[in-house]
Amino acid sequence: MEIKKNQHYLIVHLKPGENLLKSLITVCEKHSIITGVILSGIGQLTEVTLGYFKENNNYTPELFNETYELLSLSGTIIPHEETYLPHLHAVIGSERKKTFGGHLIDATVKVTNEIILLDIPIEISRKKSLVTGLMELSL
Fold this sequence. Notes:
By secondary structure, the chain is mostly beta strands. It contains one helix and nine strands; from the N terminus they run ββαβββββββ.
């Protein structure tokens, strides 16, 4: 992993074999991110697990085990308990140009990932909603 940072922006270059979510959490911990917002995320992934929220505690996870282009990555990464809690969505594309998207549960970098992360100086948190069961934003 390589990182270049100025006051609020981080450019993150992930290498083959790195876990996308764990790497982003490590970046946030290392740089004490207040609230991380993914501005851009592209590259190539494998072992991608995407989910679709159906009901409380059911994200209907699906594993995409081939190689896919990471076409879009968006979401937030905020402090939660003693680590960070990413809430990311991804769109991936196959070699045949078929796309899949959803809540990013897990992924491994296949070739490279280029992520642009913005650290905004606004503290937010997540609390479990009694209605949806989701860890929703708490402003």
